[in-house]
Amino acid sequence: MADSRICILTVCAAMLASCTQENFVPRDGDLLFCTSGNTAMSQAITTATRTRNHIQYDHVAVYANVDGVPSVIEASAQAGVCVVSWEEFLERADRINGKPGIDVMRINEDVDIPAAIDKALSFKGQSYDWYYLPENGMMYCSELIYESFLRRDGSHLFTPAPMNFRDKDGNMPEFWEELFAGLGKEVPEGEPGTNPNDMSMEPVLTLVHRYFD
Question: Do 130 and 144 contact (CB within 8 A), yes or no?
Fold first, then answer.
């Protein structure tokens, strides 16, 4: 009888843990790193920014309750800087084992999160930055995060680095060649910038949830 009770309690505990994982909701200011999809743009991003980690990201956004609604603030190629519902963001995420390919990372430094969210919202309406250049009135995904999250002394929380658009063999992917040729610009190789893969590895972040585990 005792063994049966122990068995039942063990099963219940496992079910509770599973339920907790299924219903995890991020906190305001948590960063949402999305795993790489199959589009040409996604592949070009992860090819150029690949890390030793087997998980590769092609997008990053920030979770926030906006006017009381669970939401995500992001700079997307389709809509520029915008606010979308949490449900929509989860639904459109690429799937891994049938689950959203999203890692949730939390700032582990003393940062004014409400101020960071307000800063991110202040960029709403800006176009997506296909030029991948700083301070040009447009934003790409990790640039939005870089510009929004500041330490209390006003310094940037995240670290820019010379951008690389080439693959591991030093070749320029066709996606980037065609994109910048269409813009009439040189590929901004070496210009200071950010990307989701490098940002995810910064020590100011702690992984708190993986939706696809």
Answer: no
